[in-house]
Amino acid sequence: MAETDQAAEQARIFQRTRAVDTQQGIDALKRILRMTKASPGLVTLSVLATVAAVAAQLSIPVLLGRAVDATQAVANETGDQGTLWRIALALFAVSVARGLFTLLQNYSAEAVGHGLAHELRLQIYSKIQRLPFSFHDRTHSGDLITVGMLDLEGVRMFFSTGVIRTILLTLLIGIGAWLLLSTDIVLGLLALSFVPFAAWRSSVMQLTLRKTWLILQERLGVLSRVMEENLGGIRVVRAFSAADHELTKFDEASTEALHLSHQRVTVRVRDTSAMTFAFFLAMGLVLYFGGRQVAAGEITVGTLATFLTFMTILQMPVRQLGLMVNSYARASTCGARLFALLDMPLEVDEAPDAPDLKVTEGTLTLEGVGFEYQGAEGHRAISGVSFTAHKGETIGIVGPPGSGKSTLMHLIPRYYDTTEGSIRIDGQDIRDVSLSSVRHAVAVVQQDSFLFTTSIENNIVYGDPEAHDRRIRGVAESAQLHDYVLGLPQGYDTVVGERGVSLSGGQRQRLSIARTLMMEPAVMIFDDSTAAIDAGTESRIRSALRQYSAERVTLIVAHRLNSLMHADRILFLEDGRIVEEGTHDELLAKGGRYRALHDLQMRPEGDVLDEMETAR
Ligand SMILES: Nc1ncnc2c1ncn2[C@@H]1O[C@H](COP(=O)(O)OP(=O)(O)OP(=O)(O)O)[C@@H](O)[C@H]1O
């Protein structure tokens, strides 16, 4: 399969209503079973407890039949009370044993499932931390959360509702049927007549419910997405008076969900009633023909009671056959999705014994760097970029929107691997050293600064939780954040993020700068990260950062030339290539693209508008 198709295939597997390949499903079930080997004691215990519980359960109808016969004998004065007491005692003991073994079976089977879920949860979380950025570009984060929650649940339940229930039902129905048929073949067949019908309807019902459940989940997903977007973009919705349009969108999705829910209720009620009818019909037949046999003296009342009790005991498990079938269907699709995620190749892979990057001089070298995004092959976002930056140097990167500035910046911390050329720090190719050491050496202050819902201090020390107060204060001062924090009622302990104090765009960016300064990286990248900060504050941040910049390579991407004209060198990017390079003065003197951009930004707005008017 071509790489692009493979990438698209990988992204599609997370769509919930998409059928999973049969072989993939079978492999998933086998893999779940193999994973249960991690708790051999609990698996053995649950199987043994199931067998013992079935044995106890099957003794109950036999003992009840004997009790009826013994009661009749006592009434007819042909039997003694002692037999009746002994049977009653045996019934009591068997009932207690059945309860205890069922408890043990449920406990151990659930424990196996929870152990499995715990292990898989850790594996999924750790995998998500290491998946390449290109994977996250293609996959909706909601789909990944669903794999970690719903799919994990499907796999967790498989041992108890699939494996153990298969053992339980096979033994119960198999041995029970043999007992009945060997006692009286006609009555046995009549007693079991409801089983095939109920098993079939129960399976069809559960599989239909599962199919509609998946569609319903998707519709509910649409509903929550519409709601989420509506809330997230509440200002846009109100500003454009689009409330009616939004309501129509919501109404459509909600009506579809309602229809599906009705459909599900219809299926459940119809099939449950049909199964109950089949059961009572079979019971009526057993009573009719069994009663005639009792009257003819062919069987005892106790035997008839055994048949009827056995039917009652069998009724629930047979109805649950559908749940068992559903458990296999669910575990195979959920498992296939979950394992597809766990087996996803790590494109940005590190050699198992990759050494850590050793920063000595702090020199960054890019040589013939080229890059294509996955899924956009044939279109180079970056081509032939080469430059070297030494410790203490500040390099400005400028260019029109879409020229590849952010992409280039994302190659240096190895968020993506270059498709051509190499990136080296102090002569070491970043692909030959451990990823974590590269990420420590290269820190990026992103355009949109994500903050965790925790205190300002915890957000700042995210990259170095052991940092002491003086350093925290130092980086906050350099990022021009300290005075603002002191003005907050709880200072550095103030909680920020979605459920905390709301920070302005500029304050968020300053906090994000402070967090990056804390890492003390060898290469520090500002990816348009001062766009939301006013020119005065930006200039103060720049002066405060001077001491930091002297110790490292600083790369600044900006649209505002004011933000980077102080740089030692400026690279002008166009279509992923460096088309001009030099200091601010050199580039101005050159009279090229940089000069044109400079003139546009520096001229009073009126002049530009006049020029545009004249050009028309
Ligand atoms: N995740 C992605 N997958 C595929 N193509 C992408 C991805 N991100 C960016 N691109 C494409 O790569 C090219 C360079 O984008 P990039 O974001 O690096 O430009 P930029 O110069 O930083 O733009 P801006 O100034 O608007 O931030 C664009 O054509 C863009 O459409």
What does this structure look like?
The chain is of the alpha/beta class and 616 residues long. It has three domains: 3-342, ABC transporter type 1, transmembrane domain (ABC transporter transmembrane region fold, Up-down Bundle), CATH 1.20.1560; 364-582, P-loop containing nucleotide triphosphate hydrolases (Rossmann fold, 3-Layer(aba) Sandwich); 583-616, no CATH class. It has 22 helices and ten strands. β7 (523-527), α19 (535-549) and β8 (553-557) form a beta-alpha-beta unit. α8 runs antiparallel to α10. The longest helix is centred in the middle third of the chain and has 53 residues, at 243-295. The protein is elongated, with a radius of gyration of 36 Å. It binds adenosine-5'-triphosphate. Adenosine-5'-triphosphate (ATP) binds next to α13.
Write the layout of secondary structure elements.
Blueprint: H1 3-12, H2 22-35, H3 40-75, H4 81-130, H5 133-138, H6 141-183, H7 185-192, H8 194-232, H9 234-239, H10 243-295, H11 301-319, H12 321-342, E1 364-372, E2 380-389, E3 394-398, H13 405-411, E4 420-425, E5 428-429, H14 435-441, E6 442-445, H15 456-460, H16 469-478, H17 482-486, H18 505-518, E7 523-527, H19 535-549, E8 553-557, E9 569-574, E10 577-582, H20 584-590, H21 593-602, H22 605-615
Parallel strand pairs: 3-8, 3-9, 6-7, 7-8
Antiparallel strand pairs: 1-2, 1-4, 4-5, 9-10
Subcellular location: Cell membrane
Transmembrane segments: 41-64, 84-104, 158-179, 185-204, 272-289
Domain ABC transmembrane type-1: 45-330
